[in-house]
Design brief:
- Helix 11 packs across helix 12 and helix 15 crosses helix 16.
- The chain is an alpha+beta fold.
- It contains 21 helices and 39 strands.
- Among the domains are: 294 residues, P-loop containing nucleotide triphosphate hydrolases (Rossmann fold, 3-Layer(aba) Sandwich); 68 residues, Alpha-Beta Plaits (2-Layer Sandwich), CATH 3.30.70; 110 residues, Ribosomal Protein S5, domain 2; 83 residues, Alpha-Beta Plaits (2-Layer Sandwich).
- It is 29% helix and 28% strand.
- Strand 20 and strand 21 form a beta hairpin.
- The strands form eight sheets. An eight-stranded antiparallel beta sheet has the order 19-18-24-15-16-23-20-21. It has a seven-stranded mixed beta sheet with strand order 3-4-2-5-6-12-7, sandwiched between helices.
- The protein binds guanosine-5'-triphosphate.
- The site of guanosine-5'-triphosphate has 23 residues, from helix 5.
- GO terms for molecular function: GTP binding; GTPase activity; translation elongation factor activity.
- It comes from Saitozyma podzolica.
- Belongs to the GTP-binding elongation factor family. EF-G/EF-2 subfamily. Belongs to the TRAFAC class translation factor GTPase superfamily. Classic translation factor GTPase family. EF-G/EF-2 subfamily.
- InterPro entries: EFG_II, EFG_III, EFG_III/V, EFG_IV, EFG_V, EFG_V-like, EFTu-like_2, G_TR_CS.
- One of its GO terms (biological process) is mitochondrial translational elongation.
């Protein structure tokens, strides 16, 4: 046992209840039992007749699991009551109970994602993980000289370009010590026998153009590894990935890769995690040597030096002998770790306050609790390319990241009103099936649907129901994925990830066994920022529309529409690279070479103030006429952080002035009106149509009348609501050698960018700026030219912001002229 010097920091973690108050539809971590404060009876799910009865949840689940559910349920109840106003009565629901078998199976299961900024080394790291876990026989590098390419970059285009385009799922087994929460005594942390863990891994792309891949992976994973470069540290895309991880409450470890690079400084990166990402993070390892002298790591929890030896570092050698050169640093960083960890964990904090000795096991257990409850991020270091520090990271995944039953997932019950509390999902094999299709891929054998099973068991040959369409489908083939290879399986248990063949559905669909009407919430889909016209080079081929349909189904950020004025097919997406890849895939996979127009920025229009409408659509020309009257308000709307949606229709009509059967037609009219703004003809965002009143005529009212009334009302209100034209603004990050700093700043100023931050390191600098996407065309060749090819940049969508008034005036006039010419 190792004890620690006393520390004088008395900040205690906040109470659990304040930390669990996240959006009700988000996944919530289950607080470890030591952090849970549950003293009052919980009546989340009760019937009108049994209102006031005693808690059913803890009684049913029993023991520790019961308390965990209870804690989450308490949070849900609190949230729900807050958002729904007065407490309402809901039908009593008996939650499934996890068997001992379920618990045993899940305790050794991890579902993790690997995400990071571009080129941080995610794929290189995953390749090592696959090698050390025996999934691949040899290591192949991204853009390696052997020309094979990394296993997880299986697409021909990925191997050619050396970038990850699609996330790839794989699974592997890892022999690791039991999680510290299961270790009873101090000796057990080192002495306990190793166990086999099943790990599902999803390697996600770093490039912001493929951000939806990260989004959907994080939606279904229980934990993540955030990879950073030891030199570049927190970069623009790291911030995005961090935001995505927070959105889905994903506990994470940070891995500072590339410790072999000149200028490697992991502790600067830890500080950036704290300052830039506001993370409570601390290193759990100290590197032995750095740059070309990087030799291994010291685990500062167990106080062991760890070296990689043998072929490609496949042998781990542990020693109690901490090298002299890092002994002081190890002591300092261990004290720092405890200091930060006790901010996040009450048990450890109490040990502090009571001046009790703190053992290695105390730290390890606190690390697990604090990581799972999202209060702390342990930081690991290593070099994937030099095969150093990967196995200890895998031990970290099994030790500190949650198993599927330690994360609280929930569904909505479509049989209840929309504001009913969500239903906790229990990863019990015997429970009714609930699974989420989170990714689709068209393969050689038809549509491949990736599915996360949240509860119940998915069996080959079974019938499952699509909660969105209500359709029943048979599961003809079930596989576990290993990048582009697969392994047939008969069934998949709760908490696991698999893929199905031959199941028609869309990305984000929920599947059940038909006995429940549960549906899982969908994920956040960002707005496209760029579009271009596209047409086949030769004659129109059926493959052209076939390809576009398939890509749209696979990728919700890829959109296709036909411009009603020019009749051109327009594709929109997250960036030039995103669209280029689809154009290239049309050629390679569908044999359709295409001609594309100049990329255009996806402008939008919006309103800035609320405005009232009172509009009557009336037509009388013999026979039955048309009559529809709508009254209400059009008001600006903020983006919903959960869904990414910023337009909505709300029906507040009471008293039947507009018969119910016409309401969908009015909503349709509103949706139609959003397609084309009056200023420049671009789609409209950020507004809510509130229908308050209206009138109908016994003979002359019909759906068409009300649809046209809604269109007219919208037009009337939009003009009065001070509309503006919006353009996408990007966060641009440039990294270049220091001697080019002046030129880089000059070029950003010339493009009317706003510089947000500049960071100077030994001989390079990073500049962060916000620039309108419309002003970024041609930047990559300009940067190449002015930095002798040594500068790199990345950009990601930040927001849509109003264009300058003079630009709006020019755009509006040009649009008007075009309209006049056409007429
Ligand atoms: N020096 C050094 N280079 C590394 C290390 N890990 C990866 N690289 C290199 O960094 C480049 C990017 O590696 P990838 O593994 O493709 O990075 P990625 O994060 O998967 O890339 P994207 O998915 O395209 O964003 C490659 O040239 C790797 O060889 C490392 O530990 N040290």
């Amino acid at each position: 046992m190792s004890t620690l010097p006393r520390l004088v920091r008395l900040r205690c973690p906040p109470t659990s209840s304040s930390l669990t108050r996240t959006s009700i539809l988000r996944r919530q971590p289950i607080l470890p039992s030591s952090s849970v404060i549950v003293s009052t009876p919980i009546r989340l799910l009760r019937s009108a007749t049994t209102a006031g009865t005693l808690p059913i949840l803890s009684a049913l689940s029993g023991g520790n699991a019961g308390r965990r559910w209870a804690s989450s349920a308490a949070a849900v109840k609190e949230e729900t009551e807050e958002s729904a106003g007065a407490a309402e009565e809901w039908p009593e629901r008996v939650l499934p109970i996890m068997s001992e078998g379920d618990k045993g199976r899940l305790r050794r299961q991890r579902n993790v994602g690997i995400s990071a900024h571009i080129d941080s080394g995610k794929t290189t790291l995953t390749e090592r993980v696959l090698y050390y876990t025996g999934r691949v026989r040899d290591i192949h590098e991204v853009r390696g000289r052997d020309g094979v390419g990394a296993k997880m970059d299986s697409m021909e285009l990925e191997r050619e370009k050396g970038i990850t385009i699609q996330s790839a799922a794989t699974f592997c087994d890892w022999l690791a010590p039991p999680p510290p929460s299961e270790v009873k005594d101090v000796a057990g942390l080192d002495g306990a026998e190793k166990d086999n863990f099943a790990i599902n891994i999803i390697d996600t792309p770093g490039h912001v153009d493929f951000t939806i891949e990260v989004e959907r992976a994080l939606r279904v994973l229980d934990g993540a590894v955030l990879v950073l470069c030891s030199v570049s540290g927190v970069q623009s895309q790291t911030i995005t990935v961090d935001r995505q991880m927070r959105r889905y409450n994903v506990p994470r470890l940070a891995f500072i890769n590339k410790m072999d690079r000149a200028g490697a400084n992991p502790f600067r990166v830890v500080n950036q995690l704290r300052n830039k990402l506001k993370m409570n993070a601390a290193a759990v390892q100290v590197p032995i040597g750095a740059e070309s002298d990087f030799r291994g790591v010291v685990d500062i929890v167990r106080m062991k030096a760890i070296y990689n030896e043998g072929t490609k570092g496949n042998q781990i050698v542990e020693s109690d002998e901490i090298p002299e050169s890092v002994r002081d640093l190890v002591e300092e960083k261990r004290a720092e770790l405890i200091e930060h960890l006790s901010d996040a964990d009450k048990t450890l904090c109490d040990l502090f306050l009571d001046e009790q000795p703190i053992s290695n096991l105390d730290i390890a257990q606190a690390l697990r609790r604090a990581t799972i409850s999202l209060r702390f991020t342990p930081v690991f270091v290593g070099s994937a390319i030099k095969n150093t520090g990967i196995q200890p990271l895998l031990d970290g995944v099994t030790s500190y990241l949650p198993s599927p039953d330690e994360v609280h997932n929930q569904a909505l019950d479509a049989a209840l009103p929309a504001h009913a509390p969500p239903v906790p999902l229990v990863p019990a094999q015997e429970a009714p099936l609930v699974g989420l299709a989170f990714k689709l891929e068209e393969g050689r054998y038809g549509q491949l649907t990736y599915m996360r099973v949240y509860q119940g068991e998915l069996k080959r040959g079974s019938l499952i129901f699509n909660a969105r369409t209500g359709k029943k489908v048979k599961v003809p083939r079930l596989v576990r994925m290993h990048s582009d290879e697969m392994e047939d399986v008969e069934s998949i248990g709760a908490g696991e990830i698999c893929a199905m063949f031959g199941v028609e559905c869309s990305s984000g669909d929920t599947f059940t066994d038909g006995s429940t009407s549960f549906s899982m919430t969908s994920m956040f889909v960002p707005e496209p920022v760029i579009s271009l016209s596209i047409r086949p080079e030769g004659n129109e081929s059926p493959n052209f529309s076939r390809a576009l349909n398939r890509f749209q189904k696979e990728d919700p950020t890829f959109r296709v529409h036909v411009d009603s004025e020019s009749q051109e097919t327009i594709i929109s997406g997250m960036g030039e690279l995103h669209l280029d890849i689809y154009v290239e895939r049309m050629k390679r996979e569908y044999n359709v070479a295409c001609i594309t127009g100049k990329p255009r920025v996806a402008f939008r229009e919006t309103i800035t103030v609320p405005s009232k409408f009172d509009y009557t659509h009336k037509k009388q020309s013999g026979g039955s006429g048309q009559f529809g009257k709508v009254k209400g308000t059009l008001e600006p709307m903020e983006i919903d952080p959960d869904t990414g949606k910023d337009t909505a229709f709300e029906n507040r009509v009471i008293g039947g002035n507009i018969p119910n059967q016409y309401i969908p037609a009015i909503e349709k009219g509103f949706q139609e009106a959003l397609d084309r703004g009056q200023l420049t003809g671009h789609p409209i965002n950020g507004c809510k149509f509130i229908l308050e009143d209206g009138a109908a005529h016994v003979n002359d009212s019909n759906e068409l009348s009300f649809r046209l009334a809604a269109l007219g009302a919208f037009r009337e209100a939009f003009g009065k609501a001070k509309p503006v034209v919006l353009e996408p603004v990007m966060t641009v990050e440039v990294v270049a050698p220091i001697e080019f700093q002046g030129n880089v700043i000059g070029a950003i100023n010339q493009r009317k960018g706003t510089i947000i931050d500049t960071e100077i390191r030994d001989d390079e600098f990073t500049l962060t700026a916000e620039v309108a996407l419309n002003d970024m065309f041609g930047y990559s060749s300009q940067l190449r030219g002015m930095t002798q090819g040594k500068g790199e940049f990345s950009m990601e969508y930040k927001t849509h912001a109003p264009v300058m008034p003079n630009v709006q005036k020019e755009m509006t006039e040009a649009y008007r002229k075009k309209q006049l010419d056409r007429n």
